[in-house]
Each structure stands twice: as structure tokens, then as C-alpha cells.
Design goal:
CATH architecture of one domain: Up-down Bundle
Organism: Haematococcus lacustris (Green alga)
Pfam family, one: DYN_lid
Shape: globular
CATH topology of one domain: Histone Acetyltransferase, Chain A
GO molecular function: dynein intermediate chain binding; dynein light intermediate chain binding
Largest sheet: 2 strands, antiparallel
Protein name: Dynein 2 heavy chain 1 cytoplasmic ATPase lid domain-containing protein
Strand content: under 5%
């Protein structure tokens, strides 16, 4: 059993002499509408369970913006020998949606809080892999564009009101259940 991917990004072509020993099984990529439908159903069920109408209505926009971010980063930031880890797949898209599902209904009552969490999760999943300042700047401009495009012209500064956007569930030691919240006290975080 073996797996192959496309040539490029430091990967060498495989010879026909080796390939003759294998049976081929390949899958076509899912369409954006299929991906959106799957993740909108998952996130929508989570939001419907515990959140208000305004947050429930933002579900489709969050998923659409996530799919657009995923497609943009796959098209613009291709793997190279110096950036061989720039490979993005549906697992990354799933991690963003799962991260958005960690928000606490007791402390999340506004769409801007959900968008702040979404921006954090996109940064955690996608931007944390980026290595150059140009790539980080490109990603930030992409987030700003997606906010304006999918969320009625919201600006990045309207959603992110702190210097650094960090979420975590470790600020209250021994809490059960752990609460995934926006961390604003950097001194306490470092401590």
C-alpha cells in the first residue's frame, strides 16, 4: 500500500517501472458547494442547539468565508522546497470549524465574538504554518477582505479590539468543563 501526490514542491516523478506494481485508486476533489453544505450542517447544528438567532444566521457566512480562505491559501501559497510544509487540505478546514464549535454559549452572545473566534482559528490553523513576513501580511489582508466580503463590510479592527487575538481554555486551572475564551490579560497569560 502506498500513496502518491502530484509532482512539484520537491517531490520527484515516479517511474512507470515502479508504478506497474500498483493498482490505482483516485478521488476527485469535492466541490465548494459540497464542502459548504457539509460544514454548514455541522456548524449549524451546533449553533442551533445553544445560540441565538443572530449567531445561527451567521453560520453560512462563517463556512463560506472559511472555504474561501482555504481556497485562496491553497492557490496562493504553494509548497516549495523551502516551504514544503505549505500543504493545506480538508483536515485544516475541519479544524477551523471544530475550533469555532468550542465557543461557550454562556459567554458568546454577539456575532462579533464568533467572528473573533473564527479569525483566531483561521490564524491558528493556517497562519501558524507561514514562515515569511510577506506571507503573514498576505494572510492578514486576506482575512480583512473576507470579513468585508462575507460579513456586511465589517472591518478587522471592529472585530479584533485587542492587540493580540488569543483564545484558550487554560486560564482557569482545574475548571470543569474547560471554557474556551478570549484571553485579554497578557500578564496573567504569561504568568
Amino acid at each position: 500500500m502506498a500513496t502518491l501526490t502530484k509532482q512539484g514542491g520537491g517531490r520527484n516523478p515516479v517511474t512507470n517501472r515502479l508504478l506497474r506494481h500498483f493498482n490505482f485508486l483516485s478521488f476527485t476533489e469535492m466541490s465548494d458547494s459540497s464542502i459548504s453544505r457539509i460544514f454548514t450542517t455541522i456548524l449549524g447544528a451546533f449553533f442551533k442547539k445553544s445560540f441565538g438567532e443572530s449567531i445561527q444566521s451567521s453560520c453560512e457566512h462563517v463556512v463560506a468565508a472559511t472555504v474561501d480562505c482555504y481556497n485562496a491559501i491553497r492557490a496562493a501559497l504553494l509548497p516549495t522546497p523551502s516551504k514544503s510544509h505549505y500543504t493545506f487540505n480538508l483536515r485544516d478546514l475541519s479544524k477551523v470549524v471544530q475550533g469555532c464549535m468550542r465557543c461557550d454559549p454562556r459567554s458568546t452572545s454577539d456575532v462579533k465574538q464568533v467572528l473573533s473566534l473564527w479569525l483566531h482559528e483561521c490564524s491558528r490553523v493556517f497562519e501558524d504554518r507561514l514562515t515569511t513576513n510577506e506571507d503573514h501580511e498576505w494572510f492578514r489582508s486576506q482575512q480583512t477582505t473576507l470579513l468585508a466580503q462575507h460579513f456586511q463590510g465589517l472591518a478587522y479592527d471592529e472585530v479584533v479590539t485587542t492587540e493580540r487575538l488569543i483564545y484558550g481554555d487554560f486560564m482557569i486551572p482545574g475548571a470543569d468543563p474547560k471554557v474556551y475564551t478570549h484571553i485579554t490579560d497578557m500578564g496573567r497569560l504569561v504568568k
